[in-house]
Amino acid sequence: MTKVRPRSLLQVVLIGFVLVLMPLGGMIWHDSQALSHLSQLTSDELERAVRDTRRATLLTTQAVDLERTLRRYAVLGDDRILGSYQQQLANYRELLATHQQSIPDVAAYTDLESSLAWLDSLQDLGKAKGEAASPKFDQFNHLNQQLEVITRSQVDAHVVRMRATIADLQTEIWLASGFVAVLSLLLVLLFTYLIIHPVRQIESRILSLGAGVEPDKRPVEGPAELVVLGERIGWLHDKLKELEQQKYQFLRHVSHELKTPLAVLREGADLLSEQLVGPLNSDQQEICQMLEENSRRLQTLIERLLDFNRLSQQEVFSFTAVPLGPLLSELSAEYRLALESKQISVHLPPEPISLQAEPYRLRLILDNLFSNAVSYGAKGGQIWIRAGVDAHGSWLEVANEGPSIPLAERERIFEPFEQGSIVRQGLLKGSGMGLSIARESAMSLGGELKLIEDEQADVCFRLTLK
Asked: EC number(s) per UniProt (predicted)?
Protein backbone atom coordinates (compact mmCIF):
# COMPACT_ATOMS: atom_id res chain seq x y z
CA MET A 1 0.00 0.00 0.00
CA THR A 2 1.41 3.37 -1.03
CA LYS A 3 1.95 5.82 1.80
CA VAL A 4 0.22 9.16 1.42
CA ARG A 5 2.54 12.05 2.10
CA PRO A 6 2.43 15.80 1.36
CA ARG A 7 4.13 16.91 -1.81
CA SER A 8 6.07 19.77 -0.31
CA LEU A 9 7.08 21.28 3.01
CA LEU A 10 5.10 24.42 2.18
CA GLN A 11 2.01 22.27 1.65
CA VAL A 12 2.50 20.63 5.05
CA VAL A 13 2.80 24.02 6.77
CA LEU A 14 -0.23 25.51 4.98
CA ILE A 15 -2.42 22.45 5.58
CA GLY A 16 -1.31 22.43 9.20
CA PHE A 17 -2.25 26.07 9.71
CA VAL A 18 -5.61 25.61 7.99
CA LEU A 19 -6.54 22.47 9.93
CA VAL A 20 -5.47 24.00 13.23
CA LEU A 21 -7.39 27.22 12.55
CA MET A 22 -10.57 25.44 11.42
CA PRO A 23 -11.52 24.11 14.89
CA LEU A 24 -10.62 27.47 16.41
CA GLY A 25 -12.86 29.21 13.88
CA GLY A 26 -15.65 26.73 14.62
CA MET A 27 -15.26 27.34 18.33
CA ILE A 28 -15.42 31.11 17.82
CA TRP A 29 -18.60 30.73 15.72
CA HIS A 30 -20.18 28.37 18.26
CA ASP A 31 -19.31 30.67 21.16
CA SER A 32 -20.67 33.72 19.34
CA GLN A 33 -23.93 31.87 18.60
CA ALA A 34 -24.17 30.71 22.20
CA LEU A 35 -23.52 34.19 23.54
CA SER A 36 -26.07 35.65 21.13
CA HIS A 37 -28.64 33.09 22.28
CA LEU A 38 -27.77 33.79 25.90
CA SER A 39 -28.13 37.52 25.36
CA GLN A 40 -31.51 37.10 23.67
CA LEU A 41 -32.69 34.67 26.34
CA THR A 42 -31.65 37.02 29.14
CA SER A 43 -33.30 39.99 27.45
CA ASP A 44 -36.56 38.07 26.82
CA GLU A 45 -36.76 36.63 30.32
CA LEU A 46 -36.05 39.97 31.96
CA GLU A 47 -38.64 41.70 29.79
CA ARG A 48 -41.21 39.01 30.53
CA ALA A 49 -40.48 39.14 34.27
CA VAL A 50 -40.95 42.94 34.27
CA ARG A 51 -44.20 42.74 32.26
CA ASP A 52 -45.70 39.99 34.43
CA THR A 53 -44.75 41.74 37.66
CA ARG A 54 -46.12 45.08 36.49
CA ARG A 55 -49.31 43.45 35.20
CA ALA A 56 -49.93 41.63 38.51
CA THR A 57 -49.36 44.89 40.42
CA LEU A 58 -51.66 46.73 38.03
CA LEU A 59 -54.42 44.10 38.55
CA THR A 60 -54.20 44.63 42.30
CA THR A 61 -54.40 48.41 41.83
CA GLN A 62 -57.32 48.17 39.43
CA ALA A 63 -59.21 45.89 41.88
CA VAL A 64 -58.92 48.62 44.52
CA ASP A 65 -60.06 51.27 41.99
CA LEU A 66 -63.10 49.12 41.05
CA GLU A 67 -64.12 48.95 44.73
CA ARG A 68 -63.76 52.72 45.21
CA THR A 69 -65.61 53.60 41.99
CA LEU A 70 -68.50 51.28 42.83
CA ARG A 71 -68.87 52.77 46.33
CA ARG A 72 -68.86 56.29 44.92
CA TYR A 73 -71.58 55.26 42.48
CA ALA A 74 -73.62 53.75 45.34
CA VAL A 75 -73.37 57.03 47.30
CA LEU A 76 -73.79 59.55 44.45
CA GLY A 77 -75.82 57.54 41.93
CA ASP A 78 -74.13 59.38 39.05
CA ASP A 79 -74.36 57.59 35.69
CA ARG A 80 -70.97 58.97 34.69
CA ILE A 81 -69.40 57.14 37.60
CA LEU A 82 -71.22 54.01 36.43
CA GLY A 83 -69.68 54.47 32.94
CA SER A 84 -66.24 54.81 34.50
CA TYR A 85 -66.90 51.68 36.54
CA GLN A 86 -67.91 49.74 33.45
CA GLN A 87 -64.74 50.91 31.61
CA GLN A 88 -62.54 49.90 34.56
CA LEU A 89 -64.23 46.52 34.71
CA ALA A 90 -63.63 45.96 30.97
CA ASN A 91 -59.98 47.00 31.30
CA TYR A 92 -59.55 44.66 34.24
CA ARG A 93 -61.05 41.74 32.28
CA GLU A 94 -58.75 42.43 29.32
CA LEU A 95 -55.67 42.72 31.55
CA LEU A 96 -56.62 39.56 33.41
CA ALA A 97 -57.01 37.64 30.14
CA THR A 98 -53.56 38.79 29.02
CA HIS A 99 -52.10 37.82 32.38
CA GLN A 100 -53.76 34.40 32.21
CA GLN A 101 -51.99 33.74 28.89
CA SER A 102 -48.61 34.56 30.43
CA ILE A 103 -49.21 32.93 33.83
CA PRO A 104 -51.59 29.98 33.15
CA ASP A 105 -52.83 27.18 35.41
CA VAL A 106 -53.48 29.28 38.50
CA ALA A 107 -56.44 28.24 40.73
CA ALA A 108 -57.18 31.88 41.63
CA TYR A 109 -58.51 32.56 38.13
CA THR A 110 -61.72 30.59 38.86
CA ASP A 111 -62.47 32.59 42.00
CA LEU A 112 -61.62 35.79 40.18
CA GLU A 113 -64.11 34.94 37.44
CA SER A 114 -66.81 34.43 40.11
CA SER A 115 -65.86 37.75 41.69
CA LEU A 116 -66.01 39.48 38.30
CA ALA A 117 -69.48 38.03 37.68
CA TRP A 118 -70.55 39.41 41.06
CA LEU A 119 -69.02 42.82 40.27
CA ASP A 120 -70.76 42.84 36.90
CA SER A 121 -74.10 42.31 38.63
CA LEU A 122 -73.62 45.44 40.78
CA GLN A 123 -74.28 47.90 37.94
CA ASP A 124 -77.83 48.38 39.32
CA LEU A 125 -77.89 51.36 41.76
CA GLY A 126 -80.02 49.63 44.35
CA LYS A 127 -77.93 46.49 44.32
CA ALA A 128 -74.78 48.56 44.40
CA LYS A 129 -75.98 50.32 47.56
CA GLY A 130 -76.92 47.00 49.14
CA GLU A 131 -73.52 45.39 48.46
CA ALA A 132 -71.32 48.47 49.06
CA ALA A 133 -70.08 47.09 52.39
CA SER A 134 -69.97 43.42 51.31
CA PRO A 135 -66.97 41.33 52.45
CA LYS A 136 -66.68 40.05 48.89
CA PHE A 137 -64.63 43.17 48.07
CA ASP A 138 -62.01 42.07 50.59
CA GLN A 139 -62.09 38.58 49.09
CA PHE A 140 -61.62 40.07 45.59
CA ASN A 141 -58.66 42.17 46.75
CA HIS A 142 -57.19 39.16 48.51
CA LEU A 143 -57.45 37.09 45.31
CA ASN A 144 -55.59 39.81 43.39
CA GLN A 145 -52.88 39.96 46.03
CA GLN A 146 -52.63 36.17 45.90
CA LEU A 147 -52.30 36.33 42.09
CA GLU A 148 -49.52 38.91 42.48
CA VAL A 149 -47.65 36.62 44.90
CA ILE A 150 -48.09 33.66 42.53
CA THR A 151 -46.84 35.80 39.65
CA ARG A 152 -43.73 36.83 41.56
CA SER A 153 -43.02 33.22 42.51
CA GLN A 154 -43.37 32.10 38.91
CA VAL A 155 -41.11 34.97 37.82
CA ASP A 156 -38.55 33.75 40.36
CA ALA A 157 -38.93 30.21 38.96
CA HIS A 158 -38.30 31.60 35.45
CA VAL A 159 -35.16 33.33 36.73
CA VAL A 160 -33.93 30.08 38.30
CA ARG A 161 -34.55 28.22 35.04
CA MET A 162 -32.77 30.98 33.15
CA ARG A 163 -29.76 30.66 35.46
CA ALA A 164 -29.75 26.89 34.94
CA THR A 165 -29.88 27.43 31.18
CA ILE A 166 -26.98 29.90 31.44
CA ALA A 167 -24.99 27.36 33.51
CA ASP A 168 -25.70 24.62 30.94
CA LEU A 169 -24.71 26.93 28.12
CA GLN A 170 -21.51 27.86 29.97
CA THR A 171 -20.72 24.16 30.47
CA GLU A 172 -21.36 23.56 26.78
CA ILE A 173 -18.99 26.38 25.86
CA TRP A 174 -16.30 24.99 28.18
CA LEU A 175 -16.71 21.49 26.76
CA ALA A 176 -16.58 22.77 23.20
CA SER A 177 -13.53 24.90 24.03
CA GLY A 178 -11.82 21.93 25.69
CA PHE A 179 -12.59 19.67 22.73
CA VAL A 180 -11.28 22.27 20.29
CA ALA A 181 -8.15 22.81 22.40
CA VAL A 182 -7.44 19.05 22.49
CA LEU A 183 -8.16 18.70 18.77
CA SER A 184 -5.92 21.67 17.95
CA LEU A 185 -3.16 20.27 20.15
CA LEU A 186 -3.42 16.88 18.43
CA LEU A 187 -3.27 18.56 15.03
CA VAL A 188 -0.26 20.62 16.13
CA LEU A 189 1.47 17.46 17.38
CA LEU A 190 0.60 15.61 14.17
CA PHE A 191 2.01 18.26 11.87
CA THR A 192 4.99 18.79 14.18
CA TYR A 193 5.69 15.07 13.83
CA LEU A 194 5.26 15.26 10.05
CA ILE A 195 7.96 17.94 9.96
CA ILE A 196 10.24 16.87 12.83
CA HIS A 197 10.26 13.13 12.01
CA PRO A 198 11.92 13.50 8.59
CA VAL A 199 14.21 16.19 9.99
CA ARG A 200 15.30 13.74 12.70
CA GLN A 201 15.86 11.09 10.04
CA ILE A 202 18.04 13.50 8.09
CA GLU A 203 19.88 14.50 11.28
CA SER A 204 20.56 10.83 12.05
CA ARG A 205 21.94 10.30 8.58
CA ILE A 206 24.15 13.36 8.84
CA LEU A 207 25.51 12.07 12.17
CA SER A 208 26.10 8.67 10.56
CA LEU A 209 27.88 10.43 7.71
CA GLY A 210 30.11 12.28 10.17
CA ALA A 211 30.85 9.08 12.12
CA GLY A 212 31.74 7.20 8.95
CA VAL A 213 28.82 4.80 9.36
CA GLU A 214 26.63 3.66 6.48
CA PRO A 215 23.47 5.86 6.61
CA ASP A 216 20.01 4.35 6.38
CA LYS A 217 19.16 3.59 2.77
CA ARG A 218 15.39 3.76 3.26
CA PRO A 219 13.67 6.86 1.80
CA VAL A 220 12.92 9.69 4.19
CA GLU A 221 9.25 9.73 5.18
CA GLY A 222 8.14 13.31 4.72
CA PRO A 223 7.68 16.20 2.28
CA ALA A 224 9.30 16.01 -1.13
CA GLU A 225 12.05 18.53 -0.27
CA LEU A 226 13.18 16.47 2.72
CA VAL A 227 12.97 13.24 0.73
CA VAL A 228 15.24 14.75 -1.89
CA LEU A 229 17.58 16.00 0.85
CA GLY A 230 17.77 12.46 2.27
CA GLU A 231 18.65 11.16 -1.19
CA ARG A 232 21.35 13.82 -1.50
CA ILE A 233 22.84 12.67 1.80
CA GLY A 234 23.01 9.12 0.45
CA TRP A 235 24.64 10.44 -2.71
CA LEU A 236 27.11 12.44 -0.62
CA HIS A 237 27.96 9.34 1.41
CA ASP A 238 28.72 7.41 -1.75
CA LYS A 239 30.92 10.22 -3.01
CA LEU A 240 32.77 10.49 0.30
CA LYS A 241 33.22 6.73 0.37
CA GLU A 242 34.63 6.87 -3.13
CA LEU A 243 37.00 9.68 -2.15
CA GLU A 244 38.02 7.72 0.96
CA GLN A 245 38.87 4.70 -1.17
CA GLN A 246 40.85 6.91 -3.50
CA LYS A 247 42.72 8.35 -0.52
CA TYR A 248 43.60 4.90 0.82
CA GLN A 249 44.63 3.76 -2.65
CA PHE A 250 46.79 6.85 -3.04
CA LEU A 251 48.47 6.19 0.32
CA ARG A 252 49.14 2.58 -0.60
CA HIS A 253 50.58 3.49 -3.98
CA VAL A 254 52.69 6.38 -2.67
CA SER A 255 54.03 4.32 0.24
CA HIS A 256 54.90 1.42 -2.04
CA GLU A 257 56.53 3.64 -4.64
CA LEU A 258 58.60 5.45 -1.98
CA LYS A 259 59.89 2.31 -0.32
CA THR A 260 61.79 1.08 -3.43
CA PRO A 261 63.97 4.17 -3.98
CA LEU A 262 64.35 4.52 -0.21
CA ALA A 263 65.81 1.02 0.02
CA VAL A 264 68.34 1.92 -2.66
CA LEU A 265 69.26 5.16 -0.83
CA ARG A 266 69.72 3.32 2.49
CA GLU A 267 71.80 0.60 0.86
CA GLY A 268 74.03 3.19 -0.83
CA ALA A 269 74.42 5.15 2.43
CA ASP A 270 75.36 1.96 4.27
CA LEU A 271 78.00 1.08 1.62
CA LEU A 272 79.50 4.56 1.91
CA SER A 273 79.50 4.42 5.72
CA GLU A 274 81.25 1.05 5.67
CA GLN A 275 83.87 2.65 3.32
CA LEU A 276 83.61 -0.24 0.87
CA VAL A 277 84.17 2.11 -2.05
CA GLY A 278 87.08 3.87 -0.43
CA PRO A 279 88.11 5.76 2.72
CA LEU A 280 86.07 8.82 3.83
CA ASN A 281 87.19 11.90 5.63
CA SER A 282 85.31 13.33 8.61
CA ASP A 283 83.12 15.65 6.51
CA GLN A 284 82.13 12.82 4.20
CA GLN A 285 81.34 10.56 7.14
CA GLU A 286 79.13 13.30 8.61
CA ILE A 287 77.25 13.57 5.30
CA CYS A 288 76.78 9.77 5.24
CA GLN A 289 75.46 9.91 8.80
CA MET A 290 72.95 12.60 7.74
CA LEU A 291 71.86 10.39 4.83
CA GLU A 292 71.35 7.43 7.16
CA GLU A 293 69.39 9.43 9.75
CA ASN A 294 67.07 11.07 7.20
CA SER A 295 66.52 7.81 5.34
CA ARG A 296 65.49 6.20 8.65
CA ARG A 297 63.19 9.13 9.31
CA LEU A 298 61.66 8.77 5.86
CA GLN A 299 61.19 5.05 6.42
CA THR A 300 59.46 5.78 9.74
CA LEU A 301 57.10 8.24 8.04
CA ILE A 302 56.26 5.73 5.33
CA GLU A 303 55.63 2.98 7.87
CA ARG A 304 53.32 5.25 9.86
CA LEU A 305 51.41 6.13 6.72
CA LEU A 306 50.97 2.43 6.05
CA ASP A 307 49.90 1.87 9.67
CA PHE A 308 47.34 4.68 9.46
CA ASN A 309 46.02 3.35 6.18
CA ARG A 310 45.77 -0.17 7.58
CA LEU A 311 43.91 1.00 10.68
CA SER A 312 41.51 3.09 8.61
CA GLN A 313 40.54 0.02 6.60
CA GLN A 314 39.02 -1.53 9.78
CA GLU A 315 40.45 -4.98 9.20
CA VAL A 316 38.92 -7.91 11.07
CA PHE A 317 41.15 -9.38 13.81
CA SER A 318 40.91 -11.47 16.98
CA PHE A 319 41.90 -10.67 20.58
CA THR A 320 44.55 -12.62 22.45
CA ALA A 321 46.36 -12.26 25.76
CA VAL A 322 49.42 -10.11 24.97
CA PRO A 323 52.19 -10.11 27.63
CA LEU A 324 53.55 -6.60 28.22
CA GLY A 325 57.01 -7.70 29.35
CA PRO A 326 58.45 -8.60 25.92
CA LEU A 327 56.95 -5.52 24.27
CA LEU A 328 58.42 -3.21 26.90
CA SER A 329 61.84 -4.90 26.64
CA GLU A 330 61.84 -4.38 22.86
CA LEU A 331 60.91 -0.73 23.27
CA SER A 332 63.60 -0.11 25.89
CA ALA A 333 66.23 -1.66 23.61
CA GLU A 334 65.01 0.24 20.56
CA TYR A 335 65.12 3.62 22.33
CA ARG A 336 68.20 2.86 24.45
CA LEU A 337 70.44 5.41 22.75
CA ALA A 338 67.82 8.18 22.97
CA LEU A 339 67.16 7.36 26.64
CA GLU A 340 70.87 7.41 27.45
CA SER A 341 71.51 10.65 25.57
CA LYS A 342 68.71 12.40 27.53
CA GLN A 343 69.54 10.53 30.77
CA ILE A 344 65.90 9.41 31.16
CA SER A 345 65.07 6.57 33.54
CA VAL A 346 62.16 4.23 32.78
CA HIS A 347 59.95 2.59 35.44
CA LEU A 348 58.21 -0.58 34.25
CA PRO A 349 55.35 -2.47 35.93
CA PRO A 350 56.74 -4.53 38.85
CA GLU A 351 54.53 -7.54 38.12
CA PRO A 352 54.09 -9.36 34.79
CA ILE A 353 50.75 -8.58 33.21
CA SER A 354 48.90 -9.44 29.99
CA LEU A 355 46.28 -7.38 28.16
CA GLN A 356 43.49 -8.72 25.95
CA ALA A 357 44.23 -7.05 22.59
CA GLU A 358 45.53 -7.59 19.10
CA PRO A 359 49.37 -7.76 19.28
CA TYR A 360 50.13 -5.56 16.28
CA ARG A 361 47.80 -2.74 17.35
CA LEU A 362 48.90 -2.86 21.00
CA ARG A 363 52.53 -2.68 19.78
CA LEU A 364 51.63 0.40 17.69
CA ILE A 365 50.03 2.13 20.69
CA LEU A 366 52.97 1.43 23.01
CA ASP A 367 55.52 2.41 20.35
CA ASN A 368 53.90 5.76 19.62
CA LEU A 369 53.24 6.63 23.27
CA PHE A 370 56.75 5.63 24.34
CA SER A 371 58.30 7.52 21.41
CA ASN A 372 56.24 10.56 22.36
CA ALA A 373 57.38 10.32 26.00
CA VAL A 374 61.05 10.02 24.98
CA SER A 375 60.89 12.84 22.43
CA TYR A 376 59.07 15.35 24.66
CA GLY A 377 60.38 14.16 28.03
CA ALA A 378 62.59 16.37 30.15
CA LYS A 379 66.32 15.76 30.12
CA GLY A 380 67.24 13.77 33.21
CA GLY A 381 63.53 13.06 33.80
CA GLN A 382 61.55 9.88 34.29
CA ILE A 383 59.05 7.78 32.34
CA TRP A 384 56.47 5.56 34.08
CA ILE A 385 54.67 2.71 32.37
CA ARG A 386 51.81 1.36 34.47
CA ALA A 387 49.21 -1.31 33.73
CA GLY A 388 46.48 -3.15 35.54
CA VAL A 389 43.10 -4.88 35.37
CA ASP A 390 39.97 -3.79 37.25
CA ALA A 391 36.22 -4.38 37.16
CA HIS A 392 35.82 -2.19 34.06
CA GLY A 393 38.59 -3.89 32.05
CA SER A 394 42.32 -3.49 31.57
CA TRP A 395 44.27 -0.23 31.38
CA LEU A 396 47.73 1.04 30.46
CA GLU A 397 49.36 4.38 31.25
CA VAL A 398 52.49 6.00 29.79
CA ALA A 399 53.54 9.07 31.77
CA ASN A 400 56.61 11.30 31.64
CA GLU A 401 58.13 14.40 33.13
CA GLY A 402 58.38 17.40 30.86
CA PRO A 403 56.39 20.39 29.63
CA SER A 404 52.64 20.02 30.12
CA ILE A 405 50.31 20.07 27.11
CA PRO A 406 48.11 23.21 27.04
CA LEU A 407 44.37 22.64 27.55
CA ALA A 408 43.53 24.11 24.14
CA GLU A 409 45.70 21.49 22.41
CA ARG A 410 44.67 18.34 24.31
CA GLU A 411 42.21 17.18 21.65
CA ARG A 412 43.92 18.66 18.62
CA ILE A 413 47.12 16.62 19.16
CA PHE A 414 45.18 13.42 18.36
CA GLU A 415 44.32 14.68 14.86
CA PRO A 416 46.41 13.39 11.90
CA PHE A 417 49.40 15.57 10.98
CA GLU A 418 48.75 17.87 13.95
CA GLN A 419 51.45 18.80 16.43
CA GLY A 420 51.28 20.85 19.58
CA SER A 421 53.16 24.03 20.37
CA ILE A 422 55.73 22.18 22.53
CA VAL A 423 59.10 21.83 20.78
CA ARG A 424 60.16 18.22 20.20
CA GLN A 425 63.53 17.34 21.76
CA GLY A 426 65.89 15.54 19.35
CA LEU A 427 67.34 15.66 15.89
CA LEU A 428 64.31 14.36 14.03
CA LYS A 429 61.12 16.30 13.63
CA GLY A 430 57.89 14.39 14.24
CA SER A 431 55.29 13.66 11.56
CA GLY A 432 52.21 14.42 13.65
CA MET A 433 50.89 10.90 13.03
CA GLY A 434 51.94 9.09 16.24
CA LEU A 435 49.10 10.02 18.58
CA SER A 436 46.57 9.79 15.75
CA ILE A 437 47.69 6.22 14.99
CA ALA A 438 47.65 5.38 18.71
CA ARG A 439 44.05 6.63 19.13
CA GLU A 440 42.91 4.90 15.93
CA SER A 441 44.45 1.68 17.22
CA ALA A 442 42.75 2.10 20.61
CA MET A 443 39.37 2.69 18.96
CA SER A 444 39.83 -0.34 16.70
CA LEU A 445 40.39 -2.40 19.87
CA GLY A 446 37.13 -1.06 21.31
CA GLY A 447 39.02 1.04 23.83
CA GLU A 448 39.81 4.67 24.50
CA LEU A 449 43.00 6.71 24.59
CA LYS A 450 42.99 10.07 26.32
CA LEU A 451 45.20 12.54 28.12
CA ILE A 452 44.60 12.60 31.88
CA GLU A 453 45.87 14.47 34.92
CA ASP A 454 48.49 12.66 37.00
CA GLU A 455 49.90 13.65 40.38
CA GLN A 456 53.31 12.09 39.69
CA ALA A 457 53.93 13.06 36.05
CA ASP A 458 53.49 16.18 33.94
CA VAL A 459 52.01 14.30 30.97
CA CYS A 460 50.05 11.04 31.19
CA PHE A 461 48.27 9.11 28.42
CA ARG A 462 45.83 6.42 29.54
CA LEU A 463 44.65 3.51 27.37
CA THR A 464 41.46 1.79 28.54
CA LEU A 465 40.45 -1.59 27.08
CA LYS A 466 37.11 -3.27 27.81
From this structure: 2.7.13.3
